[in-house]
Amino acid sequence: MFDYPEVFSLIRHLGWLTTTYFWFANASLAILLVFVLMTFIGPRGSKFTYVAKFSMFYYLSSMVVSLLAPIFILRPKNVVNCKLGGWFIGKCTYLLGISWELRGSHLLRDNVGGIIISNHQSSIDILGMFNLWQFMDRATAIAKKEILYIFPLGPVAWLAGITYIDRKSPKDSYKTLSKCVRLMKDDKIKIFMYPEGRRNDSRSGFLPFKKGAFKTAIHAKVPITPIVQSPLYFVDPKKHIFDSGHVILSVLDPIKTDDLTDEDTDMLMNKCRDLMLTEFRKLSSEIESKLSNMSWMKEKRSGMYLKD
Prior knowledge:
Helix content is 50%, strand content 15%. It is built from 10 helices and 10 strands. The protein has helices spanning 4-38, 47-74, 80-89, 92-96, 124-132, 153-160, 170-186, 212-220, 265-291, 294-298, and strands at residues 98-103, 114-118, 139-144, 163-165, 190-193, 224-229, 235-236, 241-242, 245-251, 303-306. A hairpin with a 4-residue loop joins strand 7 (235-236) and strand 8. Helix 2 runs antiparallel to helix 3 (80-89) and helix 7 (170-186) packs across helix 8. The relative contact order is 0.14.
């Protein structure tokens, strides 16, 4: 027999929670609008405008994960949460006027666990990753543990399925990478990693790669898929330039690790780096030639589109 007073009390409490949630959503959207308007203040090269654009992206990311937190709580650590959050955050692409040209998307659609590696130039790379997730069935990323303590983004991203790694502790790093091995083998999850370890705004090449991604791939016997991102010619931290722009994301053929051992780690790492560096230089030359084409420069583009 139902206890009707308790049922009605629960409904009232849920009503209060719903009202609070929508109030928070409306307030968040109002603040986002302020950030968007701030990006139009000041001339090109203004530090204020430059910071405002990055701040808008960071705020939108935190806002999205906060609003989606109730869903993440219902299915914690489910990597499908990452795809959902990435879809919403990826819309910041339109606010910033960035277009992404994805080449080789078919190489991401297989239902196979593995590691995806990419060069890392700016936090804008994360926006490209969020857009890429829409072409993969199950994917997540490894992030440095310091992000976990950035509220609310860090804790809610953990709920969404992001894995954090303590790079200062070899023991903890090993445990984290061992967990990733299980995720890739048992759950067929793709894990996104930046082997440079930190951002590199140089347009001439890459930083030395760290071994973690390659050791993990060899232990799990899963393929490594390199993705090369063209130079971010429209972002210049020294001159406070953040224009609209175009980014090419080139997916290279997966590299199998079935027959490799720990002794092959350096060979695998150097092979991936050489392949990616060669592709990066090709993309750099292509972008440079496009920048001298006035009709291409005036062309309206935004969002993600495929060019297979």
